[in-house]
Amino acid sequence: MINITTLSTAVILIYVVYMRFLHPLSKYPGPLLATLTNGYKAYYVYNLRLHEKFLELHMQYGPVVRVGPNHLHLWEGEAIAPIYKGGRKMGKSDFYNAFTAFNPNLFGGTNEDIHSLRRRQLSHGFSQASVQKLEPLIEGQMKVLIDKLRAFAKTGEVFDFKSVLSLYVLDILGEVAFSKPFGVQAKGKSDELHAINDHLLLAGVIGELPFQDLWKTLARMSPVPWMRQLVKSRNNLKEICSRCVNFKINNPSERPDLLKSLVEAVDPESGSRLTEQEINSEAFAVLVAGSHSTSGTMTLLLWHLTHNPDIFAAVTQELHEKLPPLHDNQTSYPIEGLESSLIYTMACVRENFRMNPVFNMPLWRRVGYPGGIDIAGHHIPEGTSVCISNHVLHHNPDIWGADHEEYIPDRWLDENYNKEKGKFLIPFSIGHRMCIGRNLAMTNILKTITTLLMRFDFEPVGKERRVNVRSSGIGEMDGEFLCRVSMK
């Protein structure tokens, strides 16, 4: 009789030999453990540094790396269009199912027909014209931020700019997406932010694993307190969304906000509207993605500016030359015209997007072409999950040069460089799945940066020359951003 241990050893050995030497992806280099289990990726998501690990692997192995049993990660610019503009032949993988809290939303939905319908229903509410109508709501929360910074300036208190901006952006989202602020700026803390982090970590880890329903069940039943906390946090966020959506549906008003747009969203082709459950799903996505991506980007941008005095001086000089002084009855500058008129400031924004893109999760696509597809000179078999994540792409030295680790906004001032390299800058992704919230994010960023830099001077307490991002999919600056502020 065959010994169970011997049989198990033989099965494992056969599996290892097949995955490493006989599998269709065996010709592509990568760590041994990654070729055997998706737990390799899940481990680095849990440790908040999958984006850094992927970059390390490309530096070691080259342009294509096998990062999972059936997963290839690429970093060449030529791979962007085939992967993210391939339509139905390059559909979303099961990875996205882990992010579903209600129904699949615009981000997580894998059905192309439903995605097209949802995009048509939501496009008007997220258009630049609609976002500009939300500016008074944004300015209401900006007044709270300005008052807080004035108080810090008066006392000379050292404060954590990262925390201040995170609370500010969350209150803006409450205003524009849920019809009321969360009031976290006044409280100085937020359970919602912790819950969002927990949800992203839970979804990011499970998304990289097979048998997602099993892992979700184990997380709910786990005796480990931190795992149960992740599930509890997701449920808390769902409850917040449900309450706000239900109130908005049953108490209609003329208040212009995204929730009103979701309730009234109509497909121009079919006339169909969103159900309450679908509204919950989209509101949940706005809450999760909108808060961390915007506050994280602003925090990192201000870190780079304050730690590079010459660059900071050039930005403030441009602002004073291009923008009039703010009047006493004026909270901030209107968004119209800011992006086109502030050439150097936008170069700083672009360089921040390049250096530290906070939305850095691997957006996996599954090859659906019979017989596979050639991408950037590499043949990828049908059924393979492929990705080119922006952190890795934005640090490819073959694209950006040996100084890709340096914050150099001037690189974007050359028109030819901008035209040539701009197509490789994808902080909001690209193609028909591009982030629908770009207009709202850029409005928040530009209104806030211009207003703060025209009103205040900021001095970082620390003198670090490098900033790190920790991310389970949507990242933020690692550690505190301690500052002092003074009035101009």
TrEMBL record:
Domain of life, per lineage: Eukaryota
Binding locations of heme: 435
Alphabetized GO MF terms: heme binding; iron ion binding; monooxygenase activity; oxidoreductase activity, acting on paired donors, with incorporation or reduction of molecular oxygen
Keyword field: Heme, Iron, Metal-binding, Monooxygenase, Oxidoreductase
Cofactor: heme
A Gene Ontology biological process term: mycotoxin biosynthetic process
PROSITE patterns: CYTOCHROME_P450 (PS00086)
Protein family per UniProt: Belongs to the cytochrome P450 family.
Protein name: Cytochrome P450
Organism of origin: Penicillium frequentans
UniProt lineage: Eukaryota, Fungi, Dikarya, Ascomycota, Pezizomycotina
